[in-house]
Amino acid sequence: MPLRFTLRQLEYFVAVGEAGSITKAAEQVNVSPPSISASIAQLEAEFGVQLFVRKHSHGLSLTAGGRVFLKEAARLLADADALHDIAGDIAEKVRGPLAVGCLLTFAQIVMPTLRAKFERAYPEVRFRQFERNQGQLLEMLQRGEIDAALTYDLELSQDTTFEPLMLVPAYVMLPEGHRFAGKASITTEELADEPMVLLDLPYSREYFLSAFQMRGIRPNIAERTGDIAVMRSMVANGFGYGIANMRPLNTLAPDGKPLVFVPLAGDLRPLTMGVALPNAEHRTQTVQAFIDHCRRFVVEQGVFGSGRVVE
User: Fold this and answer.
1) Most confident of 88-92, 226-230, 280-284
2) Cα separation, 293 vs 121, whole angstroms
3) Which residue in 83, 193, 216, 300 is a FRET match for 62, CA 20 to 30 A apart?
4) pTM for this structure?
5) Is DNA-binding included in the keywords of this UniProt record (predicted)?
């Protein structure tokens, strides 16, 4: 019996089922809402089942049958993606889908240029990117939602493989004119009474605070934010100092005010930026090509001026 549906239709159906909205799904897969509506209608007509209950005020809800159909459609799409990997390995070509997560604290510095260069080198790869905090990236790796994550070596599980790229020590971020701005380095003892703008993200937060805890010091946390760009602007406007590892490519906060960066002295270990992957017996050519590309990128671009490339 000939198939009268396409993988593209299944992709649109899964996108709507997971998003709960045709509009949101259309944004994710970059097609028009009418195209998605037509695909779902064709699937329902082909299989003779109602997949969604339409609710004007609440979008779409999956029917009981639709939930079963969603699970099987997602499995079928995953199997189809695996065929791309197998075909690429047989043909020794880098091709097919690649989902990459990136730690949101440095995604804006790294990902756009890295991705653009990768896609020019490997035009047959369908690249998707996700910016998340460390906890979310680790969960996405465990659930198989991404193939790799560009991140730090923070709280990695035994189910994760980590390919190191660069050592990145911590630095103190200060407003221009601060009394510590001219120092060669700053200790946590010197920072103890200074107001701190804490980058309040899972695992990152604990890492920064450990610099004080190991010295028996309680930092003076004046402000908290989960957005590193907001932290930079708050520091530049005199709300306190910040601590981070990834240096921006210039010395200006997002609002244009100047910043000063001074190394943090003490025993806080440098973080290692690298590529985290699920443990697997077989690594596809596309994933390996991405790792190799990242290695070349950190060397060629000279990003993160305070870091050191891992050989």
Assistant:
1) 226-230
2) 9
3) 83
4) 0.70
5) yes
The per-residue pLDDT of the chain, averaged, comes to 88
Q: Which residue in the block uniquely carries the two structure tokens 């100092």? A: 241
What is the distance between the alpha carbons of residues 31 and 33, in angstroms, rounded to a whole number? 7
The two tokens of residue 157 are 């599980």
Helix axes 64-91, 7-19, angle to 10 degrees: 130
**Highest mean pLDDT out of 10-19, 20-29, 47-56, 121-130:** 121-130
Distance of CA 257 to the CA centre of its chain: 27
Q: Pick the closest to residue 88 from 290, 302, 306, 284 (CA basis).
A: 284
3-state DSSP call for residue 211?
Answer: helix
Tokens encoding 113:
């240029």
CA dihedral (158, 159, 165, 166) in degrees, to 10, reads: -40
